[in-house]
Amino acid sequence: MAFILAPSLLSADFLHLEKEIEMINQSEADWLHLDVMDGVFVPNISMGFPVMRHLARISTKPLDAHLMIVDPQKFIPQFRDLGVRSLTVHYEVCPHLHSTLMKIKEAGMKAGIALNPHTPVEALTDIIEDADMILIMSVNPGFSGQKFIPRAVEKVQRLKKLIDSLGLNTLIEVDGGINIERGQWMVEAGANVLVAGNSIFKAPDPTEMIRQMKREI
Ligand code: DX5
Ligand code: ZN
Q1: Residue 115: other Cβ atoms inside 10 A
Q2: Disulfide: which of 11, 13, 120, 153 matches 197 by Cβ 3.0-4.6 Å?
Q3: Which domains does the chain have, with CATH numbers?
């Protein structure tokens, strides 16, 4: 089935980021997923603008930024300047989510909402029309290589129903513990974008794993 594959750079070899990005550039991957963490919303810190500026310069794939930070609205101009395609903020940290989504769109980016595993899809009823993409977390945000939470499959099915019932074409992205088998479940459930970290970067041949995912899912 057709889907967008977004390798998550968090699982890459940070000592050789240029090489890792060249690998993604040459591969059949569709987007490059950037995980941004602040040590406040999630118990980890990933990368900041000095590093991302370099990545953005050499990546030929559209950048898909997933912000796991409080006050994400503060940084919208910086992400626009990086040339990010889609900017996803967490539902749980945005008291003025509508305003935040509008600012992202005014800055010329696609606006996404991410849901933690405990946040119900139904919480989106009054905001989904304003989002371009919904990201369903299938692990608790903060680290790559965590155990997949199976309940996320049913959540994607419920989200797909909600999107169809409203006649929208909002993209569904899933993130956390995705490999070929779970990717198949998710695409069958209605997902359009698969994020994959460890399953790609820790594979013996990441380029071949990307090819295999694109072919077999
Ligand atoms: C987790 C991040 C994910 C993570 C995915 O907080 O949002 O993007 O890097 O890594 P895997 O696929 O290894 O779970
Ligand atoms: Zn992510």
Answers
A1: 20
A2: 11
A3: 4-216 (3.20.20.70)
Enumerate residues lining ligand 1, CB below 6 A: 8, 10-11, 33, 35, 66, 139, 141-142, 144-146, 175-178, 195-199
pLDDT in the model for residue 148: 98
Measure Cα distances from 163 to 62, 94, 127, 133, 183 in Å. 24, 21, 12, 11, 20
Q: What are phi and psi of 108, to 5 degrees?
A: 90, 15
Nearby residues of 126 by Cβ (< 8 Å), 6 or more positions away: none
Mean predicted lDDT score pLDDT of the chain:
98
With 90 as the cut, is the pLDDT of residue 89 above it?
yes
Q: Which single residue is written with the structure tokens 């939470």? A: 149
pLDDT at residue 52, as a whole number: 98
